Amino acid sequence: MKKSLGAKTIVYPTPVFIVGTYDENEEPDVMAAAWGGISCSNPPCVSISLQKHRYTLKNINERKAFTISIPSEGYVSEADYFGIVSGKDENKFEKTGLTPVKSELVDAPYVEEFPLVLECKAINTLDLGMHVQITGEILDVKLDESAATDTGKPDIEKIKPFTYDPAAISYRAIGKNLGKAFNLGMKFK
Fold first, then answer.
1. DSSP string, 156-170
2. Which regions in the chain score pLDDT beneath 70?
3. How many C-beta atoms lie closer than 10 Å to residue 79's C-beta?
4. Cα(7)–Cα(73) distance, rounded to whole angstroms?
């Protein structure tokens, strides 16, 4: 029997996206965002939802661009810090010692030390209430060579991304491989 928890923001997995923007003074900023995911295949798009008062939302609205950097498990403290303070109050790159890199494709920075980066042009916003959903067309995905398979594709075991657990308010490592997608279910066909 299932027990009702009420209307809550609980879904698994919940990503840890580090959203990069520039502010009006050309200063690089990043924030942690968990409300988001892939939203279209063609053109490739990702959507994030940010609270209306967020400094990053203001920056995206002004620049029409953002990046998403995917941190490895070794950077969980830095990623958490990025969600604790506002870029209008502190320089998060200086505090953490991480390196901002200016995207060549969009007017936004990404985090050099994080192995996977999406460079996005903001193409749509939707007011949802407390949050605004921003859809970004993914113009490029950048991958550290050290996090690639032998064929050059992203290797999740080398990237070591982690997820946010909204019920426990904690971070979780990603677990074992369960099998090949679009193959395991063929036994029911």
1. HHHH--EEEETTTTE
2. none
3. 25
4. 30
Q: In the structure encoding, which two tokens stand for residue 77, read together?
A: 């403290």
Q: Is residue 170 part of a domain?
A: yes
Classify 106 as helix, strand or coil. Answer: coil
Domain count along the chain: 1
Cα 154–178–170 angle (5° rounding)?
Answer: 75
Is 63 among the domain residues? yes
> Measured in whole angstroms, how far is the alpha carbon of residue 18 from the centre of its chain?
5
The string of pLDDT tens digits covering residues 145-189 is 999 999 999 999 999 999 999 999 999 999 899 999 999 999 999
CB within 8 Å of 177: residues ≥ 6 apart:
none
- Residue 108 maps to which CATH number? 2.30.110.10
From CA 147, how far away is CA 153, in angstroms rounded?
Answer: 8
Q: In the block, which residue shows the tokens 């490739």? A: 44
Token pair of 66, please? Answer: 């953002």
Q: What is the pTM of this model?
A: 0.96
The range of the structural domain enclosing residue 72 comes to 14-188
**What is the rounded CA–CA span in Å between residue 113 and residue 178?**
29
Cβ 106 vs Cβ 121: under 8 Å: yes
DSSP 147: G
